[in-house]
Fold:
Amino acid sequence: MKTLLVDMDGVLADVYAQLLKIEYEEKGIKHKIESLYGKMESEAFEDGYAYVHRPRFFQTAPLIPGCVQGLRYLNDKYNLLIVSSATEFPNSPTEKLKWMHKHFPFINWKQIVLCGRKDVIKGDIMLDDHPKNLNYFEGRKIIFTQPHNIYIQNPSYERANNWEEVMNIL
Ligand SMILES: [Mg+2]
Structure:
């Protein structure tokens, strides 16, 4: 069975939805999603770094549509690991664990890898939204479309625009 590494933020957790919600509630700013294309999260949201440090930011993140059904499918087919850079944000490891247990009770704690960097994690396939993670991975690379990566064309990646496409290619 192949080992599949699946990212959390931007693949399972809808970080953009969370950032857009805070930005609207606190500043009254309603970004058009197209205006965020091609910008890193830190460029797109001026106070984004502060937002992600807030308690409950990760714990209350909405799900990316289709990801629960998608993970259920992948969990039967692969040696599935959820790999997330979490230690940069002190609240996030606990919050991310709670979030995973709440939404994905079929994923056990041994399958969840919370780390500071992903280049030490081994696997056959990586599904991630960030080139910084995909680029040093040696196996098959699948980029999950998010506004920041929408213009990236890299022949070493396969692209999945949504969870339906993930299930079609994996
Ligand atoms: Mg991510």
Observations:
- The chain has one domain: 3-14+59-169.
- The CA atoms of residues 86 and 93 lie 6 Å apart.
